[in-house]
Amino acid sequence: MLKISIKKVALVALCLSGAASSHANLLLNGGFETGDFSNWTVSGPTLPTVVSDPHTGSFSANFAGSSPSLNSISQSFFANSGWTYDVSLWVKNNGIGDDRLMIQIGGDTPYDSFPIDTPLESWSLVSFLWTSDSTGPDGFFIRGFDPNTFQVDDVRIVAQPVPEPATMAALGLGALALVRRRRAKAS
Ligand SMILES: [Ca+2]
What is the pLDDT of residues 96-114, one digit of tens each? Predict the structure, then answer.
């Protein structure tokens, strides 16, 4: 009996770790907590910078300067075809009002434009759902849009929990089968 109990504990732990990993951020350094653009590609005539004015943690990315639509940070990631992902980032409206930012995800998807119309010097959440139509690598780009004075932080691409019940059910069935086998053996 003790052996079965230990197995059960191990399986519960396995289930929990599976659930946690499916919520992992596909982007690396999405909070810029390395203090630089590690894992990101930065381009443009006015390169975005990492600044110590965070939404969470210690750092965020700052967009400013001329030719804003040419200034970008980007990263490639691997998504599962047919899966839906929750894409989110926090944006701080700086300096002047009516800013916009542009986001491109999945390579051939056109840029979407998001207004940053919250009060100046405050953070707001931008989020949307995106379904991958290919198995990566996919590109994720954040660009400025004229005018262009804002910060971003906590950039995340996280799988929706849709596949999770199937995974959990499979693990649960596996656990039941194991317990049943052990019981059958014991009797
Ligand atoms: Ca941060």
Answer: 666 778 888 876 556 777 8
